[in-house]
Amino acid sequence: MYRVNQIIKTISNMNSYAPYNQINKKSNLLRKVQVYSFLTSLFSLILMVIMAVIYKVFDLPKQPFILPAFVLYALNSIAGIIYLFTPIIPGVKFMLNFKKEIFNDLICEIDNDEQNIEKLMPYSLTELNYSIDWLNIKIQRVKSRINDFFGEKTAVLSIIGLAYSAVQGFGGLDKLGDTISKGLFNSGTTNTLIVFGLAFLLGLSLGALALKNVANHLQYLKEVLELTKKIKEKDASAERE
Questions:
Q1: Considering all CA atoms of the chain, what is the largest pairwise distance in Å, rounded to the nearest integer?
Q2: Does residue 176 lie within any of the structural domains?
Q3: Residue 194 is part of which domain span?
Q4: Is the pLDDT of residue 135 over 90?
Q5: Which one of 8, 76, 154, 237 counts the least CB within 10 Å of its CB?
Q6: Closest by Cα among 165, 208, 206 to 188
Q7: Which residue from 94, 114, 113 is spatially nearest to 104, judged by alpha carbons?
Q8: Residue 104 placed within a domain
Q9: Is residue 154 part of a domain?
Q10: CA 235, CA 163: separation in Å to the nearest integer?
Q11: Is residue 145's pLDDT more than 60?
Q12: Can you tell me where the transmembrane regions are (predicted)?
């Protein structure tokens, strides 16, 4: 029987080259800023929803909720904007020095992939082909579960949209300084449906983002197997000659 399970276990520990994983403090810092800004945006939204529920259930005075709601909304929006625009910084740097960056990344990618390929050289061409077939099946199964419309940026925009709706539940930006509205579930059927629609969109976006990351990683592993296969085929041809 082909050693496909062993091959899968071998490639399960492989990762593609990621520039921010290398010794680059600025890139690591930008990545951390992006992650923390996303978490800040998400948690501030959760806190606003909790505040809305507490206000509605316990029928508390409106005044104590005004300032916290405004601060959380501002924090949510700022964090979301930072998350969306943080990737632009390395992009601008790349454009200013694109030739050097391209070849440096290529050299690092080749070195990383060759180390992964070396681990697969003991396996036969037949076993590699069989493993590629299984990866193709898995990739198609993952892709069939996601829609290309959803993704990372859509998830963040959904969070911002939900944050805005939560603030609207307190009376809207124009009334935050004066009063808090009746609450999410007393704001009308239409507004309630919109909020739950945005929540559903957020869930789909985060789920699709996770599945896309899985599909991209499987695609990389498939490419490593195909490169290994090509090298073994060339070696076999050279031996026959």
A1: 87
A2: yes
A3: 14-240
A4: yes
A5: 237
A6: 165
A7: 94
A8: yes
A9: yes
A10: 59
A11: yes
A12: 35-58, 70-92, 154-173, 193-211
Answer whether residue 5 is part of any domain. no
The CB density around residue 13, as the number of other CB atoms within 10 Å, is 8
CB atoms within 10 A of CB 233: 12
CB 8 within 8 A of CB 117: no
166-191 as b/e, with b when 16 or more CB fall inside 10 Å? bbbbbbeeeebeeebbebbeebeeeb
User: Is pLDDT of 20 > 60?
Assistant: no
* Contact call for residues 11 and 224 (beta carbons, < 8 A): yes
How many structural domains comprise the chain? 1
CB atoms near residue 161 (< 10 Å) = 19
Place of tokens 């073994």: 232
> What length is written for the chain?
241
The CA-CA-CA angle for residues 28, 76, 209, to 5°, reads 60
Those residues whose C-beta lies under 8 Å from the C-beta of residue 134, and which sit 6 or more positions away, are 4, 8
pLDDT in tens, 174-220: 544 443 344 444 555 555 565 566 666 666 667 777 788 888 899 99
Q: How far is CA 149 from the centre of its chain?
A: 14
Q: Quick one: tokens of 201?
A: 């969109």
- pLDDT at site 93: 72
Structure tokens at 149: 């419309």
Over residues 95-115, the pLDDT tens digits come to: 777 777 778 888 888 999 999
Q: Decide which of 26 and 130 is more confident.
A: 130
4 by DSSP, 3-state: which?
Answer: helix
pTM above 0.70, yes or no: no
